[in-house]
């Protein structure tokens, strides 16, 4: 059986600073990079060579706290309307449906900044609903990790939280519907790109649990993407430098009916084959996410926020 390998960011008990490591077989091998941002300054070939040459794991994975695999100047971006179901969902909710129909087939994809590094949460940490929103959904997405050269070096799982009620009022409200405290979650691990045989055909599933009941579930595949991963990354990097790389969530093919909305206390569970899992409880409003500010200077503060 092939050993599963993931790039992770973590903090050990009593430590003041996070480390970057390679997780496999329940152990974590500390890596020589000081941050994920520094790691993403390497070329794909250099990164693969250095990870392949890494020694034996030294730290028990159960003894550390895993952090979001993004830091420094690395940004999280997102692509919209990349699946036919996403186009249909946007048309259903919007007062200006034609803009979503046009962008689906347009040469230029919809791309937007989703989160700076410090606002990203990870597995077990809460995602949030805006207090002024009435219809909110998780968006399970394959996230592509690109280095500073625009080379795809890895994949992770993203929950691109979205306010359908705000976006539906006016397409110009997209930043408010998409960018707020608790809007972006990434799995703890980055799967190296060469470890994922075919990123163009990965099963994606999501389940929303409300107490013991599953109130929504859905599945899709990256094979249903309207654009290739290379095309999306090329469009992101064409006008912009990313000196510490970038993470791009590639859109969702799972959109609930408009009658469904997340509620405070729900639990969102996402799985992408060959890549990983991501589970987050749901809170409402800005105040329950205020711990992110403390975690800027005290990464160990994240332990209290995790399940």
Automatic annotation (TrEMBL):
Identify a single GO molecular function assigned to this protein.
Answer: hydrolase activity
Tell me yes or no: is Magnesium among this UniProt entry's keywords.
no
* Keywords assigned: Hydrolase, Metal-binding
**Where on the tree of life does the source sit, at the highest rank?**
Bacteria
* Gene3D superfamilies for the chain: Fumarylacetoacetase-like, C-terminal domain (3.90.850.10)
For this protein, the record's Pfam families field holds: FAA_hydrolase
Fumarylacetoacetase-like C-terminal domain residues are 103-283
Q: Please give the family membership noted in the entry.
A: Belongs to the FAH family.
Q: What is this protein called?
A: Fumarylacetoacetate hydrolase family protein
Q: Which organism is it from?
A: Pseudonocardia yunnanensis
